[in-house]
Amino acid sequence: MSKQIDFRDVSQMPSVAISLGDMLWNKTGSWRYMRPKYEDKTPPCNAACPAGVDIVGFMNLARVGEFEKAWRLLREENPLPGVCGRACFHPCEGRCNRGEFDEAVAINSMERFLADYGARFAKGDLGYKGKVRQKVAIVGSGPAGLSCAYFLAKMGYRVTVFEALPQAGGILRVGIPPYRLPKDVLEVEIAAIEALGVKIETNCRVGEDIKFEQLKEYAAIFIAVGVHKSKRLNISG
Ligand code: SF4
Fold first, then answer.
1. What is the mean pLDDT of residues 91-99?
2. If you measure from the C-alpha of residue 80 to the centroid of ligand 1, how many angstroms do you get, rounded to a whole number?
3. Are β-strands 31-34 and 16-19 bridged in parallel, bridged antiparallel, or unpaired?
4. Distance CA 153, CA 149 (A)
5. Prediction ipTM score
6. 176 lines ligand 1 (CB under 6 A)
7. pLDDT band at 232 (very low <50, low <70, confident <90, very high)
8. What is the structure's pLDDT at 125?
9. Mind listing the domains of the chain with CATH numbers?
10. Ligand 1 pocket, 43 CB below 6 A?
11. Number of the ligand 1 atom closest to the C-alpha atom of 48
12. Quick one: pLDDT band at residue 30, thresholds 50, 70, 90?
Protein backbone atom coordinates (compact mmCIF):
# COMPACT_ATOMS: atom_id res chain seq x y z
CA MET A 1 0.00 0.00 0.00
CA SER A 2 1.41 3.41 -0.91
CA LYS A 3 2.14 5.81 1.93
CA GLN A 4 0.67 9.30 1.78
CA ILE A 5 3.24 12.02 2.36
CA ASP A 6 2.07 15.40 3.68
CA PHE A 7 4.34 18.43 3.60
CA ARG A 8 3.32 21.08 6.11
CA ASP A 9 5.86 23.58 4.86
CA VAL A 10 7.84 24.10 1.68
CA SER A 11 11.10 23.59 3.64
CA GLN A 12 10.07 19.98 4.28
CA MET A 13 9.90 19.21 0.58
CA PRO A 14 12.87 17.43 -0.98
CA SER A 15 14.71 19.15 -3.76
CA VAL A 16 13.48 18.07 -7.15
CA ALA A 17 15.29 17.49 -10.42
CA ILE A 18 14.55 20.03 -13.12
CA SER A 19 16.03 20.67 -16.53
CA LEU A 20 17.25 24.24 -16.92
CA GLY A 21 18.89 24.25 -20.34
CA ASP A 22 18.17 23.13 -23.86
CA MET A 23 19.17 19.69 -25.10
CA LEU A 24 21.28 20.66 -28.12
CA TRP A 25 24.68 19.59 -26.74
CA ASN A 26 23.56 17.27 -23.98
CA LYS A 27 20.76 14.91 -24.94
CA THR A 28 19.54 14.64 -21.38
CA GLY A 29 19.41 18.40 -20.80
CA SER A 30 21.14 20.44 -18.12
CA TRP A 31 19.92 18.98 -14.85
CA ARG A 32 19.92 20.59 -11.43
CA TYR A 33 18.39 19.68 -8.14
CA MET A 34 16.39 22.58 -6.77
CA ARG A 35 14.07 23.16 -3.86
CA PRO A 36 10.75 24.92 -4.60
CA LYS A 37 10.69 28.46 -3.26
CA TYR A 38 7.53 29.76 -1.65
CA GLU A 39 6.81 33.43 -2.27
CA ASP A 40 4.14 35.19 -0.27
CA LYS A 41 2.38 37.64 -2.57
CA THR A 42 -0.80 39.64 -2.27
CA PRO A 43 -3.55 37.68 -4.03
CA PRO A 44 -5.11 39.62 -6.91
CA CYS A 45 -8.54 39.74 -5.22
CA ASN A 46 -7.04 41.27 -2.07
CA ALA A 47 -5.05 43.75 -4.14
CA ALA A 48 -8.21 44.81 -6.02
CA CYS A 49 -10.30 45.44 -2.90
CA PRO A 50 -10.43 49.19 -2.15
CA ALA A 51 -11.07 48.38 1.52
CA GLY A 52 -7.96 46.18 1.73
CA VAL A 53 -9.90 43.25 3.15
CA ASP A 54 -8.04 39.94 3.72
CA ILE A 55 -10.29 38.06 1.32
CA VAL A 56 -8.30 34.83 1.20
CA GLY A 57 -8.21 34.83 5.00
CA PHE A 58 -11.95 35.24 5.56
CA MET A 59 -12.90 32.91 2.71
CA ASN A 60 -10.66 30.20 4.17
CA LEU A 61 -12.20 30.62 7.63
CA ALA A 62 -15.70 30.51 6.14
CA ARG A 63 -14.72 27.41 4.14
CA VAL A 64 -14.12 25.49 7.38
CA GLY A 65 -17.26 26.86 9.04
CA GLU A 66 -15.49 29.41 11.29
CA PHE A 67 -18.02 32.11 10.49
CA GLU A 68 -17.51 34.27 13.57
CA LYS A 69 -13.72 34.34 13.07
CA ALA A 70 -14.25 35.07 9.38
CA TRP A 71 -16.55 37.97 10.26
CA ARG A 72 -14.04 39.36 12.77
CA LEU A 73 -11.23 39.18 10.22
CA LEU A 74 -13.40 40.84 7.59
CA ARG A 75 -14.34 43.62 9.98
CA GLU A 76 -10.73 44.35 10.90
CA GLU A 77 -10.37 46.27 7.66
CA ASN A 78 -13.98 46.93 6.72
CA PRO A 79 -16.29 48.67 9.21
CA LEU A 80 -19.24 48.37 6.81
CA PRO A 81 -19.29 44.78 5.52
CA GLY A 82 -23.10 44.65 5.29
CA VAL A 83 -23.06 47.77 3.12
CA CYS A 84 -20.20 46.51 0.94
CA GLY A 85 -21.76 43.04 0.72
CA ARG A 86 -24.70 44.71 -1.01
CA ALA A 87 -23.50 47.89 -2.67
CA CYS A 88 -19.85 47.26 -3.58
CA PHE A 89 -19.26 46.66 -7.30
CA HIS A 90 -16.87 43.87 -6.19
CA PRO A 91 -13.70 44.48 -8.22
CA CYS A 92 -12.23 41.60 -6.18
CA GLU A 93 -14.30 39.11 -8.18
CA GLY A 94 -13.14 40.65 -11.45
CA ARG A 95 -9.57 39.72 -10.47
CA CYS A 96 -10.34 36.28 -9.04
CA ASN A 97 -7.98 33.60 -10.43
CA ARG A 98 -10.80 31.08 -10.42
CA GLY A 99 -12.49 33.18 -13.13
CA GLU A 100 -9.95 31.84 -15.63
CA PHE A 101 -11.12 28.30 -14.89
CA ASP A 102 -14.91 28.73 -14.69
CA GLU A 103 -16.24 31.67 -12.70
CA ALA A 104 -15.08 33.92 -9.89
CA VAL A 105 -15.60 32.91 -6.27
CA ALA A 106 -18.69 34.70 -4.88
CA ILE A 107 -16.70 36.95 -2.52
CA ASN A 108 -19.32 39.68 -2.39
CA SER A 109 -22.11 37.25 -1.43
CA MET A 110 -19.92 35.72 1.27
CA GLU A 111 -19.18 39.19 2.63
CA ARG A 112 -22.90 39.88 2.80
CA PHE A 113 -23.59 36.55 4.53
CA LEU A 114 -20.82 37.12 7.10
CA ALA A 115 -22.04 40.65 7.83
CA ASP A 116 -25.56 39.34 8.47
CA TYR A 117 -24.19 36.46 10.53
CA GLY A 118 -21.92 38.74 12.58
CA ALA A 119 -24.63 41.33 13.29
CA ARG A 120 -25.35 39.47 16.54
CA PHE A 121 -21.78 40.10 17.78
CA ALA A 122 -21.38 43.54 16.27
CA LYS A 123 -22.39 45.66 19.25
CA GLY A 124 -19.70 46.54 21.66
CA ASP A 125 -17.27 43.64 21.71
CA LEU A 126 -14.55 45.23 19.61
CA GLY A 127 -13.94 48.23 21.86
CA TYR A 128 -10.51 49.65 22.62
CA LYS A 129 -9.20 48.76 26.08
CA GLY A 130 -5.91 50.73 26.18
CA LYS A 131 -4.95 54.33 26.88
CA VAL A 132 -7.57 56.92 25.94
CA ARG A 133 -6.26 59.46 23.42
CA GLN A 134 -7.27 62.93 22.24
CA LYS A 135 -10.61 64.11 20.94
CA VAL A 136 -11.18 64.10 17.18
CA ALA A 137 -14.04 65.77 15.29
CA ILE A 138 -15.39 64.32 12.07
CA VAL A 139 -17.62 66.39 9.83
CA GLY A 140 -20.01 64.14 7.93
CA SER A 141 -21.27 60.64 8.72
CA GLY A 142 -21.12 59.05 5.29
CA PRO A 143 -18.90 56.03 4.55
CA ALA A 144 -15.66 58.05 4.86
CA GLY A 145 -16.68 59.70 8.15
CA LEU A 146 -17.98 56.46 9.67
CA SER A 147 -14.89 54.50 8.60
CA CYS A 148 -12.59 57.16 10.02
CA ALA A 149 -14.58 57.15 13.28
CA TYR A 150 -14.38 53.35 13.48
CA PHE A 151 -10.61 53.13 13.05
CA LEU A 152 -9.87 56.08 15.34
CA ALA A 153 -12.15 54.71 18.07
CA LYS A 154 -10.40 51.34 17.85
CA MET A 155 -7.12 53.20 18.42
CA GLY A 156 -8.49 54.90 21.53
CA TYR A 157 -9.40 58.35 20.18
CA ARG A 158 -12.57 60.00 21.47
CA VAL A 159 -14.53 60.69 18.32
CA THR A 160 -17.50 62.97 17.71
CA VAL A 161 -19.16 62.95 14.30
CA PHE A 162 -21.19 66.00 13.24
CA GLU A 163 -23.96 65.25 10.76
CA ALA A 164 -26.16 67.92 9.16
CA LEU A 165 -29.03 65.52 8.38
CA PRO A 166 -31.45 64.08 10.96
CA GLN A 167 -29.91 60.59 10.64
CA ALA A 168 -26.37 59.29 10.18
CA GLY A 169 -25.19 57.51 7.06
CA GLY A 170 -24.78 60.27 4.47
CA ILE A 171 -24.88 58.92 0.93
CA LEU A 172 -25.51 55.40 2.27
CA ARG A 173 -28.80 56.63 3.71
CA VAL A 174 -29.94 59.18 1.15
CA GLY A 175 -28.22 57.99 -2.02
CA ILE A 176 -28.64 54.20 -2.12
CA PRO A 177 -32.23 52.94 -2.47
CA PRO A 178 -33.54 50.52 0.19
CA TYR A 179 -33.95 47.63 -2.27
CA ARG A 180 -30.16 47.75 -2.70
CA LEU A 181 -29.24 48.63 0.86
CA PRO A 182 -32.00 48.02 3.44
CA LYS A 183 -31.97 50.68 6.13
CA ASP A 184 -31.90 48.12 8.97
CA VAL A 185 -28.54 46.81 7.66
CA LEU A 186 -27.16 50.34 7.79
CA GLU A 187 -28.59 50.85 11.29
CA VAL A 188 -26.80 47.73 12.58
CA GLU A 189 -23.46 48.87 11.21
CA ILE A 190 -23.83 52.43 12.53
CA ALA A 191 -24.90 51.10 15.95
CA ALA A 192 -21.80 48.89 16.05
CA ILE A 193 -19.60 51.93 15.39
CA GLU A 194 -21.41 53.91 18.09
CA ALA A 195 -20.89 50.99 20.46
CA LEU A 196 -17.15 51.63 20.18
CA GLY A 197 -17.75 54.96 21.90
CA VAL A 198 -18.24 57.16 18.82
CA LYS A 199 -20.71 60.02 19.39
CA ILE A 200 -22.83 61.07 16.43
CA GLU A 201 -24.46 64.52 16.63
CA THR A 202 -27.22 64.66 14.02
CA ASN A 203 -29.06 67.81 12.88
CA CYS A 204 -25.79 69.61 13.44
CA ARG A 205 -24.43 71.43 10.40
CA VAL A 206 -20.92 72.69 11.06
CA GLY A 207 -20.76 76.40 10.26
CA GLU A 208 -24.44 76.89 11.17
CA ASP A 209 -25.52 74.83 14.19
CA ILE A 210 -21.99 74.74 15.56
CA LYS A 211 -19.27 77.25 14.71
CA PHE A 212 -15.98 76.17 13.19
CA GLU A 213 -14.21 77.90 16.08
CA GLN A 214 -15.89 75.51 18.49
CA LEU A 215 -14.07 72.62 16.82
CA LYS A 216 -10.75 74.06 18.03
CA GLU A 217 -11.10 72.03 21.21
CA TYR A 218 -10.47 68.90 19.11
CA ALA A 219 -6.94 67.70 18.45
CA ALA A 220 -7.82 66.97 14.81
CA ILE A 221 -10.70 67.46 12.40
CA PHE A 222 -11.52 65.16 9.50
CA ILE A 223 -13.80 66.74 6.91
CA ALA A 224 -15.82 64.07 5.11
CA VAL A 225 -18.74 66.01 3.69
CA GLY A 226 -18.91 64.00 0.45
CA VAL A 227 -20.03 65.16 -2.97
CA HIS A 228 -23.76 65.57 -2.73
CA LYS A 229 -24.22 67.56 -5.94
CA SER A 230 -24.78 65.26 -8.88
CA LYS A 231 -23.69 66.11 -12.42
CA ARG A 232 -26.52 66.98 -14.77
CA LEU A 233 -26.58 65.73 -18.34
CA ASN A 234 -28.00 69.04 -19.60
CA ILE A 235 -30.39 67.27 -21.94
CA SER A 236 -33.76 68.94 -22.15
CA GLY A 237 -36.99 66.98 -21.81
S1 SF4 B 1 -17.00 43.12 -2.44
FE2 SF4 B 1 -15.96 43.31 -0.45
S3 SF4 B 1 -14.04 42.21 -0.69
FE4 SF4 B 1 -14.81 42.65 -2.77
S5 SF4 B 1 -13.87 44.61 -3.39
FE6 SF4 B 1 -15.86 45.08 -2.43
S7 SF4 B 1 -15.36 45.47 -0.26
FE8 SF4 B 1 -13.60 44.38 -1.14
1. 95
2. 11
3. antiparallel
4. 6
5. 0.92
6. no
7. confident
8. 60
9. 14-121 (1.10.1060.10), 135-223 (3.50.50.60)
10. no
11. 5
12. low
